[in-house]
Amino acid sequence: MTALFALATALLWGLADFGGGLLTRRMPALTVVVASQTIAVVVLGAIVIATGGWSEIGPRLWYAVAAGVVGPVAMLSFYKALALGPMGVVSPLGSLGVVVPVSVGLLIGDRPGLLQFAGIGVAIVGIVLAGGPELRGAPVQRQAVLLTLVAAFGFGSVMALIAEASTTLTGLFLALFVQRVTNVAVGGGALYVSVKRGGRALPEGGEGMKVVWAALPALAFVGLADVAANGTYSIAAQNGPVTVAAVLANLYPVVTALAARGVLKERLRAVQAAGAGLALVGTVLLATG
């Protein structure tokens, strides 16, 4: 069950990242974050009411609040690092966030078998390579590296925090709702500050709002896929070794790369294809170990 839900997490996160990447070509990244998460808040709010999730209010929700604060900071750091580039360095470095939940799992007593340890190592190398790292000395600004490491630590921390935010299914719905409300509050505040400083909230041109309205289905998909991924990861982490769940869930860069190949007809570089293959080998070792 852990492997199944963790792989579902990788699929959902990979598709959400792909969709978010496409949307940020048409509108500001902060707007994508706030709009997609607002849709998720509305849907999750309805689910919480329907399932009686309010009865699960307790101190564990502070983990969800923390995840909601850290998430937008990590995402914005990552977007800024991508803008500084090169993406071939930033993208694989961002996936190193897997180290955080894996370390947490080891600290709380996870002891994977020999095959699983081998699978963790192989899969992590595959994840990094699947991002298509630049191997020929591409210049990298120190700020880009620092921002990427902040983002990676943030992404990994969100995984660790959301896994601790609930112990029941209805509690998980409430935790995800609280996380998304916090996401919107933090992201909305950042968007307000950005606009005050001369940034844009809408796409350029006279039909900015029309572009946003037309993109609502895609925004809904991105927001809800991200929510579902957090949910499936939490279930995976609670039903098996966190180390295994975290590594399998972090295969999402492979999904994003394959989606770009299938939809945008982007050709995988040799290093990405090798990374995807290693990630698959690591997955098999983890699942059979």
Helical residue percent?
over 70%
Q: Strand content of the residues, in percent?
A: under 5%
What general outline do the C-alpha atoms trace?
Answer: globular
* Largest β-sheet summary: none
Q: What is the N-to-C order of secondary-structure elements (H for helix, E for strand)?
A: HHHHHHHHHHHHH
Question: How are the SSEs ordered, and which strands pair?
Answer:
Elements: H1 2-23, H2 29-51, H3 61-84, H4 87-94, H5 99-107, H6 114-130, H7 142-163, H8 169-196, H9 208-214, H10 216-238, H11 242-249, H12 252-263, H13 270-288
Q: What does the model show?
A:
It is built from 13 helices and no strands. The relative contact order is 0.24. The radius of gyration is 18 Å and the shape is globular. It is mainly α and 289 residues long.
Which features does this protein show?
289 residues; mainly alpha; 13 helices; 77% helix; globular
Compact overview of the structure:
The protein is mostly helical and 289 residues long.
